[in-house]
Design goal:
2 strands, MetI-like fold, single chain, disordered C terminus, two-stranded antiparallel ribbon, about 325 residues, 16 helices, about 0% strand, ABC_transporter_permease
Length: about 325
């Protein structure tokens, strides 16, 4: 009887081979969606991003005052902006504002995001109140803080013991500080939302295991929470860098590039060249410099951090 059963049943090795073959064929059938799914977004991106970018690149080699026909001038616009001391200064100011934004908003957003992901009492109500600045436009926020920080009628004028003469826009250091503060007040809730979602996705079993091993709250934060938030930190930093390099409304409304040119960042200088000086060729060249700078810095962050090699554990599943 034993011989009969053995003869009629498939061997264990053949069962394993068949199962692996079935798994392989199933894995082959389940993959990334085809290009057709991305076609509408690709067409939209090409029409409203790639085509305008090409037009700006072409305009950077032209001389045009907004009227008449553009005239080709070769590298004249580029040589002028590269030799312009205000342009060089604006690049350094842009990098300074960007670095300040990343350095201040990143730790603040992580702490608030991890806190908001918890189960504290009244957490939901406090989170909603804190996220209100995220609902406002940059223009509305800038107008609000311009009124609140007015040197004649605002808070500084009523608290001279803290703000001195009350003119926070009269010195470069305080003016840049105001720009960094207003940007932090408005955009920290957005990055907090990123970290809140990422913190909630961390498996709770990791914290349970850490508690069994005797790890306290601080060790859990630095050895479990922060490593698990790595992808979110990189994503948030890239968004901060791109946002910092393209900041415009805040400078336009709060400081107008002053005092003098002490807060004239590259995006605002582009506006001055193109829409105040009617030198659209030079403005296009500055805009292209910003695009290239944002792209290069973002690629460097992605490559150095290894973000480009990371893959989701759910990729290809349906």
């Amino acid at each position: 009887m034993t011989t009969q059963l053995t003869r009629n049943q498939p061997a264990a090795g053949s069962r394993g081979t068949a199962r692996r073959g079935s798994d392989s064929s199933s894995a082959a059938r389940v993959g990334r969606p085809g290009f057709g799914w991305a076609l509408p977004a690709t067409v939209f991106f090409a029409l409203f991003a790639i085509v305008p970018l090409i037009m700006v690149a072409v305009l950077s080699f032209m001389s045009w005052d907004g009227l008449g026909s553009p005239e080709f001038v070769g590298m004249d616009n580029w040589s002028r902006i590269l030799d312009d001391p205000v342009m060089i200064k604006s690049v350094w100011l842009t990098l300074l504002v960007t670095v300040l934004g990343v350095a201040i908003q990143t730790p603040l957003s992580i702490l608030l995001g991890v806190w908001a992901a918890g189960q504290q009492r009244n957490r939901a109500v406090l989170s909603v109140i804190y996220f209100i600045p995220l609902l406002l436009s940059a223009t509305a926020v800038s107008v609000l803080w311009r009124a609140l920080l007015d040197p004649n009628f605002g808070i500084p004028a009523q608290a001279t013991w803290l703000f001195g003469d009350g003119n926070l826009f009269g010195k470069q250091a305080t003016a840049i500080g105001v720009l960094a503060f207003v940007s932090t007040w408005q955009f920290t809730p957005f990055h907090t939302l990123i970290y809140q979602g990422a913190a909630r996705a961390i498996p709770h079993v990791l914290y349970q295991a850490a508690e069994i091993d005797g790890a306290g709250r601080y060790r859990q934060f630095f050895h479990i929470t922060l490593p698990q938030l790595r992808n979110s930190v990189i994503t948030s930093m890239i968004l901060m860098i791109v946002g910092g390099l393209t900041t415009f409304e805040t400078v336009l409304i709060l400081t107008q590039g002053g005092p003098g040119t002490d807060t004239t960042i590259s995006a605002y200088y582009m506006y001055q060249k193109a829409f105040k000086g009617f030198d659209f060729g030079a403005g296009a060249a500055i805009a292209l410099v910003l695009v290239v700078a944002a792209t290069v810095i973002s690629l460097i962050v992605v490559r150095v951090s290894g973000y480009d090699k990371m893959r989701s554990s759910m990729e290809g599943l349906s």
